[in-house]
Write a structure and sequence with these properties.
This protein is mainly α. Among the domains are: about 75-165 and about 260-280, Cytochrome c-like domain (Cytochrome Bc1 Complex, Chain D, domain 2), CATH 1.10.760.10; about 185-255, Cytochrome c-like domain (Cytochrome Bc1 Complex, Chain D, domain 2). The protein is about 45% helix and about 5% strand. Strands 1-2-3 form a 3-stranded antiparallel sheet, with no helix packed on it. A hairpin with a 4-residue loop joins strand 1 (about 5-10) and strand 2. Helix 6 (about 150-160) crosses helix 11 and helix 7 crosses helix 10 (about 245-255). The longest helix is centred in the N-terminal third of the chain and has 25 residues, at about 70-95. Bound molecules: heme C (2 copies). One heme C binds near residues 173, 232, 240, 242 and 253. One heme C binds next to helix 5, helix 6 and helix 11.
Length: about 290
């Protein structure tokens, strides 16, 4: 029902003239600023529909006058990232350790790439923190089988150990029992001798030092400090690849171990391998 607008004293406002069952509607329109903002937004939206991609069609969408595409933006960014990676990769390939360590950006790049690649390819054997486990060397400490200089680490990763690479690092400790070089008792004695090298409370059995010198010193050294040329571990430092308890030592000496580290040449590109070597060298034990 509609009547003439009338003045409402209580609210100091006119009514619109609309009335339902005695309830009258006050005339309080939207504020001007709100209305103008609303109109401006509507105009903006129409302009936006025309200029930018907006309406979905059955199998396509309206492209907009500008033809803007977020996909193009992303691929441009990806390309830029690849370009900058390439610059670093090329620099990394030829740089020596000093240069890398003095170039903060380059160092950061190799650490970041090394860490990611390590997680994907190496952590399965060496542990996520590179701390190793039985048979898989800890790469954080300064105890190295094959050498801890950047060049040595780089070489180990490239060719592997007892791997399928033509130039693989290789040296095979004999299986002293299976190969019938020593008897069970001799092995027990030389194992105890090995323990005595890092544990003062254990005495070396008589004759064991001689067994050691005749059979083991070629690889592990006369003083048993190890030989990186042969990947033969230091036996005096109480750091064990397989274990330093009598049972494990007996097994190691009787049957040998021959741990295998795969080659990475051909599987990872040269710059990635270099980055990995820098990463591992920087973990703490680099020489
Ligand atoms: C299949 C298991 C396996 C994988 C995967 C593996 N390693 Fe190894 N790695 C070994 C073993 C086993 C050794 C010890 C070999 C030996 O007895 O000399 C080793 C040794 C090493 C050494 C030498 C340590 C020393 O003391 O001289 C380095 C460095 C190394 N690995 C780095 C890597 C990197 C980097 C990766 C990833 C790209 C990797 N490894 C992947 C098993 C593995
Ligand atoms: C031809 C070289 C060679 C000779 C000889 C040799 N070893 Fe080894 N030894 C190695 C290599 C290489 C390893 C590294 C483990 C592997 O094969 O994966 C090793 C590992 C070991 C280990 C494991 C250490 C650890 O940290 O767990 C022990 C113990 C050991 N040797 C004791 C001996 C004793 C005792 C003899 C003599 C009876 C001997 N080795 C003779 C090369 C040799």
């Amino acid at each position: 029902m509609s009547t003439e607008p009338e003045y409402d004293k209580i609210t100091d406002t006119y009514t619109t003239g609309h009335e339902w069952d005695g309830i009258k509607e006050l005339n309080t329109p939207l504020p001007r600023w709100w209305l103008w903002t609303f109109i401006a937004c509507t105009i903006w939206a129409i302009g936006y529909w025309i200029v930018m991609p907006s309406w979905p069609l059955v199998s396509d969408y309206t492209k907009g006058v500008l033809g803007h595409s977020q996909r193009d933006v992303v691929s441009a960014e990806v390309n830029a990232a690849i370009q900058s990676r390439k610059i670093y990769s090329e620099k990394l390939l030829t740089a020596d350790l000093e240069t890398i360590k003095n170039d903060r950006d380059l160092l950061e790049f190799s650490m970041a790439s090394g860490k990611a690649v390590f997680g994907d390819n190496c952590a399965g054997c060496h542990g996520s923190g590179a701390s190793g486990s039985k048979g898989y060397p800890n790469l954080n400490d300064d105890d190295w089988l094959w050498g801890g200089s950047l060049e040595e680490i780089h070489h180990t990763i490239t060719v592997g150990v007892r791997s399928t690479h033509d130039d693989t690092r290789i040296s095979d400790m004999p299986a002293f029992l299976t190969d019938e070089i020593l008897t069970k008792n001799q092995i027990k004695d030389v194992a105890t001798y090995v323990i005595s090298l890092s544990n003062n409370s254990v005495a070396a059995p008589e004759g064991a030092a001689q067994i050691y010198q005749e059979n083991c010193a070629v690889c592990h050294g006369e003083g048993a400090q190890g030989h990186k040329e042969f990947g033969a571990p230091n036996l005096t430092d109480d750091i064990w690849l397989f274990g330093g308890d009598p049972e494990t030592l007996n097994a190691t000496i009787s049957y040998s171990r021959k741990g295998v580290m795969p080659k990475w040449a051909g599987r990872l590109d040269p710059a990635t391998i270099k980055g990995l070597a820098v990463y591992i060298h920087t973990l703490g034990g680099g020489e």
